[in-house]
Design a protein that fits this description.
This protein is an alpha/beta fold. The chain is built from 17 helices and ten strands. Strands 7-2-1-9-10 form a five-stranded parallel beta sheet, sandwiched between helices. A five-stranded mixed beta sheet has the order 6-3-5-4-8. Helix 7 packs antiparallel against helix 10 and helix 11 crosses helix 12.
């Protein structure tokens, strides 16, 4: 299904949670009133900045590829827009995503082309569950971030993208990443190191090893910054084999290959950039209604062109998740932390938050994507 068919046949299904829009609408009305009153014109900016104290605010974190599992989505169809979301997904994707999520087979769900849309939709389904169980968490959300494909979930939740168009972009992204992965034997290696570990130098040694094997323009680089001394390194398979075989010399305490098909967030994804950039030019992108942090540098998105640029750049840039968490949770000593909700499959983002900021983690809640059906 192409983009025009997505718009005509599916409609532009505007997802963002109702309470988020309600809050923004009430603020717009209040600010409009203040603008029309000369005595209150000066407090417009203060009203925006002081809208919520940290201890009454919430932050949403959206997971990425690797968090998927067979059975996710079970029991969520009774919430809000979830049934419609999966119906839209079937039309956009051309296959029954709900059945794949619920029943597998696992080998199909694990494929990049399937798991990215699955994580995207199920994460937003979890938002619908939270909206039913704790609507105040939605209403109080002031910032959000998503890991890799999770950024699309965050942008939809923030009102920057419409659900159907964002899902179409995720589909194009996943297909392009899978195609790029098929060109060369590559992968991703999770690494935990001692304090003396030098990850960039280890990557350099691995690239030199590849050159000695006759591999031209070898790739081996940090793909994810997760937490202090926690990294994901990606690149040619031979480079990752070298790192595992020499892990003790490199001061790595643990290495583990991730179940993904390619070296995501490295130069090996360059062939996927243009297809994604092209679709991002053709969908409607708006300025987010709440703060959304970019994987590329941890900073907040400013406007539509900024989002287009960073999402394309993200494919070949490391996910700076540790830096993003510092951006979100940095505050003066003694100030309260917001409530954090990991919305979607898995608890990996909660685990990284615990390692990066234990005080912030004390206010962490996971919103699961499965529920015991009656």
């Amino acid at each position: 299904m192409n983009l025009s068919m997505t718009r005509k046949g599916v409609g532009v299904f505007r997802y963002t949670a109702t309470l988020l829009h309600t809050r923004r609408l009430s603020q717009d009305v209040q600010l409009s009133s203040e603008q029309n009153n000369p005595d209150h014109a000066d407090i417009k900016e203060e009203t925006i900045r002081a809208r919520r104290a940290p201890d009454t605010a919430s932050v949403f974190l959206f997971p990425g590829q690797g968090s998927q599992f067979v059975g996710m989505g079970r029991g969520l169809l009774k919430y809000g827009n979830v049934k419609e979301m999966f119906s839209v997904a079937q039309k956009v994707l051309g296959y029954d995503l709900l059945s794949l999520c619920l029943n597998g087979p696992e080998k199909d769900l694990m494929k990049t082309v399937h798991c990215q849309p699955a994580v995207f939709v199920c994460s937003l389904a979890a938002v619908e569950r939270l909206n039913h169980e704790n609507p105040a968490a939605i209403e109080s959300c002031v910032a959000t971030a998503g890991f890799s494909v999770g950024e699309f979930s965050a942008l939809v939740f923030s009102g920057a993208m419409d659900f159907a168009e964002a899902l179409f972009a995720v589909k194009v992204r996943a297909e392009a990443m899978q195609k790029a992965s098929d060109h060369v034997a590559s992968g991703m290696l999770s690494v935990i190191g001692r304090t003396q570990a030098n990850y960039k130098h280890a990557c350099l040694q691995a690239r030199e090893h590849c050159l000695s094997l006759g591999i031209q323009e070898p790739v081996c680089a940090i793909a994810n910054y997760l937490f202090p001394d926690g990294r994901v390194i990606a690149g040619h398979k031979e480079a990752l084999d070298f790192l595992q075989e020499n892990s003790r010399k490199l001061h790595f305490t643990r290495t583990r290959m991730l179940p993904v098909s390619g070296a995501f967030h490295t130069a090996l994804m360059e062939p996927a950039v243009e297809p994604l950039r092209d679709v991002l030019r053709r969908i409607e992108i708006r300025r987010p209604e709440i703060t959304v942090h970019s994987n590329v540098d941890g900073k907040r998105y400013m406007h539509d062109k900024h989002i287009q640029k960073q999402l394309a750049k993200q494919l070949v840039s490391p996910v700076k998740w540790e830096q993003t968490l510092h951006e979100i949770y940095e505050r003066a000593q003694g100030r309260d932390f917001p409530h954090t909700y990991e919305v979607g499959p898995g608890r990996q983002l909660g685990s990284t938050l615990q390692k990066c900021n234990m005080k912030a983690f004390k206010n962490y809640t996971h919103v699961d994507v499965t529920l015991q059906e009656d």
